[in-house]
Design a protein that fits this description.
single chain; Adenine-n6-DNA-methyltransferase TaqI, Chain A, domain 2; 4-stranded antiparallel β-sheet; 3-stranded mixed β-sheet; 10 helices; 12 strands; restriction system
Length: 290
């Protein structure tokens, strides 16, 4: 059910004013168990302070300008992501790669396991760190700022720069075998239990190139059929190592890796712009409606 509020005040001003100043107050008036309801009778007597029509209009114009800027920057971000997706499809072309010399993953590297023998009490403290499942799942290139603490354990495998992580367990097959390249050297860094690491031991492939190749449609089509399960899907390391990929020339690998990495930098800058504009709007709303 939706309550429609008819008012002579500026609707854009009023909507932002109520959202910024009264949303938590109204939340306390919610009733119900499984289905929550906010009845109009509960808040119809709420007194609010309204500025002059002229001031409402000026505030609304400012909010509208910021909203338009946010929309514009979000549109640019979407275009960059679309460009990256199309570029990945073109650079890692299935037909072209299938015509090259085929190399299986076990010929170019070896795997290692993530953390073992750990319980909840072992996480969140200590002098070592680990790369979380979420970090691997969400980032084509791992984010060193999103690592979590754990105690040092010399029995565990340590992560090295340019290792590539694979997710091995998920509720959906689409999230199995997602990869993330680790871009930096870190002391005492481990990998979470629901992933395995792949360490390249050859100069036939550039790690950054593989980082992008492994997230491309070309490679994902090879991984998805390997996901096994019903309610939860798992991936075998041995099956992954049997996957064959086309061996591109090193010069071309370098070129493709740079193009994709530069585009990632553009996307990161654009995401920062959107975030800053949203924070700007939030700050203005909080300070306008004191």
């Amino acid at each position: 059910m939706i309550t429609v509020l008819k008012t002579k005040e500026n609707p854009l001003f009023l909507a932002n004013y109520l959202r910024a100043k009264y949303v938590f107050k109204f939340a306390r008036l919610v009733e119900g168990g499984n289905v929550s309801n906010l009845y109009f009778e509960r808040y119809e007597d709420t007194n609010i302070l309204i500025p002059s029509k002229n001031e409402q209009q000026n505030i609304s114009k400012l909010i509208l300008k910021i909203d338009k800027l946010i929309t514009l920057q979000q549109r640019k971000l979407k275009l960059l992501r679309t460009l990256k997706s199309g570029l990945s499809f073109k650079l890692f072309n299935k037909k072209h790669l299938n015509n090259l010399s085929q190399i299986s993953l076990d010929q170019i590297g070896q795997t290692y396991s993530g953390l073992t023998g750990k319980s909840k009490k072992d996480f969140g403290h200590g002098h070592a760190f680990y790369v979380s499942y979420l970090n691997v799942n969400q980032n084509e290139i791992g984010n060193p700022k999103q690592i979590d603490r754990i105690e040092i354990d010399k029995k565990q495998n340590l992560v090295q720069k340019n290792d590539i992580f694979f997710t091995i367990s998920s509720e959906t097959p689409e999230e199995v075998g997602l990869t993330s390249l680790w871009p930096v050297s870190c002391k005492s860094l481990y990998l979470n239990s629901f992933c395995f690491g792949f360490r390249i031991n050859t100069k036939m492939f550039i790690p950054l190139y593989l980082g992008y190749l492994f997230r491309s449609k070309y490679f994902r089509e090879k991984v998805l059929p390997l996901a096994q399960g019903i309610s939860r899907y798992n991936l075998s390391k041995n099956n992954v190592l049997k996957i064959k990929i086309g061996q591109e020339e090193i010069a071309i690998q370098e070129k493709y890796a740079k193009v994709m990495n530069d585009l990632d930098s553009d996307i990161l800058r654009q995401k920062k712009k959107v975030k800053e504009l949203k924070l700007c709007k939030k700050f203005l709303l909080q300070n306008m409606f004191i």
